[in-house]
Amino acid sequence: MSAASALVSIQDLQSRSGSVLLASEEADAIKRQAIEQTMERLPHGARRLAVQLRTPIKEAVLWEVLTDYDHLSDFIPNLASSTVVARKEKRVQLNQVGSQQLLGLRFSAQVQLELVEDRAKGQLKFHMIKGDFRRFEGNWIMRDLDRGTSLLYELTVQGCVGMPVGLIEQRLRDDLAANLLAVEKEALRRQTLV
After folding, report:
1. Is the model's pLDDT at 17 over the cut of 70?
2. pLDDT at residue number 106
3. pLDDT at residue 162, rounded to an integer
4. Which end of the chain, N or C, is less surrounded by CB atoms within 10 Å?
5. CATH number (domain holding residue 64)
6. What percent of the chain lies above the pLDDT cut of 90?
7. Does the pTM exceed 0.85?
8. Number of CB atoms found within 10 A of residue 106's CB
9. Phi, psi values for residue 107, rounded to 5°
10. Are 90 and 163 part of one and the same domain?
11. Mutual angle of helices 3-15 and 24-33, in 10-degree steps
């Protein structure tokens, strides 16, 4: 199934309220096919990843979800907590703790991020102020389409010394796709409440 036909299938699924067209797992599998991903290996074990999703949800609703910083951990998988530390105009500082199971062990990482909100451009730019990585920075970018929105998540990450990036590389890919799907699911829930 092509990404375009998978996207149409999901749009049809979302527009037909009350009818179950696919089991939840099948819908998730189709949705993952509609996500475009790239990964670039950078020097010193750093990785640059980009994940894009085209969704029928309006950009304003996606913006509302992504900037609901204190509640991100309610719907983003493996995000244990997210708390606003400071806010000054378009700059926001957050403390976030991620937690997940990896090779039978519980892995936890903490970061303090600074985000710059640019509502006019549909962009949230972030970088790590301090935390458990050597580098953690990126963007959320939203663009209006004829039928919805393009949601792009870009992340450049470099693990701490001794963290085998090859070991977590696939996990990063899976987690970024899961994050986009979680944001879309929450936005869809909020959009239907309106």
Report:
1. no
2. 72
3. 67
4. C
5. 3.30.530.20
6. 54
7. no
8. 8
9. -110, 130
10. yes
11. 140
| Amino acid, res. 152 | L
Question: In three state form, how does the secondary structure of the chain look?
Answer: CCHHHHHHHHHHHHHCCCCCCCCHHHHHHHHHHCCEEEEEECHHHEEEEEEEEEECCCHHHHHHHHCCHHHHHHCCCCEEEEEEEEEECCEEEEEEEEEEEECCEEEEEEEEEEEEEEHHHCEEEEEEEEECEEEEEEEEEEEEECCEEEEEEEEEEEECCCCCHHHHHHHHHHHHHHHHHHHHHHHHHHHHHC
Q: Is 96 exposed, middle or buried (0-12, 13-18, 19+ CB in 10 A)?
A: buried
Structure tokens at 192: 């239907």
Report residue 100 as tokens: 């997940």
Instruction: For residue 45, give both structure tokens.
Output: 């074990």
Structural domain containing residue 4: 1-34
Paired residues of 83 in beta bridges: 95
